[in-house]
Input
Amino acid sequence: MKYPILAVTAAAVLIAAGPLGAQFQAPLPSQNAKVMQRIGVTDFNVSYSRPNVKGRVIWGGLVPYDKPWRTGANAATTFTSTDDLEVEGKKLAAGSYSIVTIPGKESWIVAFNKDLDLWAKTDYDEKKDALRVTVSPAAFPETVESFTIVFRNVTSDSAELSFVWEKLRVPVLLKVDTKGLVLSKGRAAVAAAKADDWETPLAVGRTFFNDKLGIPGEGLALVDKSQSIKKTLGNTAQKARMLAADGKYAEAVKVGEEAVALAKASPDKPNIEAFEKALAEWKAKK
Output
């Protein structure tokens, strides 16, 4: 079903009706804004415009209840994710979407629509929604003059995408499978690495080991792969640390002494004081 999408300002209609070829851009009453947030290894970008309260009644007034709203002003508010995600527990594929909301007194519908060209003259077609979720608005303790979209409560695999305006906040929970993404992207990076690239398997192996990802021994195997390409202080010391972390102190000492020898032979004269201290502790435990 198609709906005429709500324009926040009359100026948006006039601008939309201007010549498509015009290069001049007059100042807009509602300023454009962008917000970016990384969650784990996934990048989120939101582009929107920020109308102001200006003493007006917003909810149920300027923005009517139960009608589609472009969730800002001027052009469509767009949301982009570099990876698949969950929105309020429902799956949404990676990509770009316009955000259309239908405000209600008790609940809001938040739609991620495939039409990125929504403007004051463009109809919103709910059949183009990739996903719809229903969320509950919450009172905000102070008046927010300019409409604001913000990421709150960011963790390694989740965040709250919030729409805040006047004295209302509308939270939308986003989640990503960070561990699964790191695993798949790490393996893909190693597979795509050039034959002389020892740094990529080292970085991926270190991450897999530290975060306990992949099959048992996969992190150490990747560090071994790095060493097979080029033995360096970095991958040798990393292997020693891994062996020690697994309680294999005799092996850790042997590899650790190789790392110390590499450091002393290096013209860069790296500071390995902390590593030598760790090596002494391993020797006492073997």
